[in-house]
Write a structure and sequence with these properties.
The complex is a heterodimer of chains A (189) and B (83). Helices cover 52% and strands 7% of the residues of chain A. With 189 residues, chain A is mainly alpha-helical. Chain A folds into 2 domains: 130 residues, no CATH class; 48 residues, no CATH class. In chain A, strands 2-1-3 form a 3-stranded antiparallel beta sheet. In chain A, helix 1 packs antiparallel against helix 8 and helix 3 runs antiparallel to helix 8. The two termini of chain A are 27 Å apart. Chain B has 83 residues and is mostly helical. In chain B, helix 2 crosses helix 3. In chain B, 17% of the residues are buried. The chains are: A mainly alpha (189), B mainly alpha (83). At the A-B interface, helix 3 and helix 8 of A face helix 2 of B.
């Protein structure tokens, strides 16, 4: 039986630091609290779920706010209304470029994130999801002009299951981050 | 088989996962992962987790089967009622 005195000393970190560590690497919050088995089990389960979602639906199940279906920035542009020349209307799209065009994440970021709500859950998996989102944008680009993109976009059930896996992985990591932070707050300093 | 050989992981969706005989199976890894994480949070000792996670996985699957059965019967009932 292992002697408790042989265990590595546990540093007392703030709940915020524990939660942040849990976002960077799923399960790292428990690891810093000295609960290494829990950290490995939870971290493996979350990363497995996220990677399985990408395998099922392809990396393009991640819809990245600010980027369109061809991996280009979505820009907002103000156009004058033909029927009413005094008013202007806004249009968003990858095709709008030029000096007047503003990246939609600068023009109205909350509306753009609201258009892709699953991205909120997916980003909770941490830098892994950000790297995968970068891969999603890269896979959406067309190597040849007007040709097919590098990565295929999944549809129907395959897409739904891929999105579900990646979003549930993010939500579970949020749950784990909250629990690890709560345990850190309970520990005596 | 050829579709599986031609599959490029991550760049293309899993071939055949859309098939009715395949996609319901994909609930299994999801249930297991959710159960393991949930029970890892709830249990004080990690020794209890494997048994409790297996138990809750079974309950989730039974619940899903029950919900599917109930909804299937509801649809059949509505179809019969509407003629």
């Amino acid at each position: 039986m292992p002697n408790p005195q042989d265990a590595p000393p546990v540093r007392h970190l703030s709940p915020t630091t524990i939660a942040a560590a849990g976002w960077v690497i799923p399960g790292a919050g428990y690891w810093l609290l000295g609960d290494r088995v829990r950290a490995v089990v939870v971290g493996f389960a979350i990363i497995f779920l996220f990677v399985a979602g990408l395998l099922i639906g392809g990396v393009r199940v991640l819809e990245v706010p600010g980027y369109g279906t061809h991996g280009l920035r979505i820009n907002a542009i103000l156009l004058s209304d033909r029927n009413n020349p005094r008013s202007v209307i806004e249009r968003d799209g990858e095709e709008y470029t030029g000096e007047d065009a503003v990246w939609v994440m600068r023009a109205h970021p909350l509306d753009e994130i609201r258009n892709k709500p699953w991205s909120i859950a997916q980003v909770m998996t941490g830098p892994l999801s950000i790297a995968a989102a970068y891969g999603s944008v890269a896979a959406s680009e067309r190597p040849i002009e007007n040709g097919p993109p590098l990565g295929a976009k999944s549809h129907a059930r395959v897409n739904e299951i891929g999105v579900l896996y990646t979003a549930v992985a993010g939500m579970l990591n949020l749950l784990v981050m909250i629990d690890a932070a709560h345990r850190a707050a309970r520990e005596p300093a | 088989m050829m579709a599986l050989l031609a599959w490029v992981p991550f760049l293309q969706p899993l071939p055949g996962a859309w098939h009715n005989a395949v996609w319901p199976i994909l609930i299994l890894p999801l249930c297991v992962a959710v159960s393991v994480v949930y029970k890892s949070i709830k249990c004080d000792s990690m020794r209890e987790v494997p048994r409790q996670a297996a138990e809750i996985t079974l309950w989730i699957l039974l619940g899903m089967c029950g919900a599917a059965l109930a909804l299937g019967l509801l649809v059949k009932g509505v179809e019969a009622w509407r003629g």
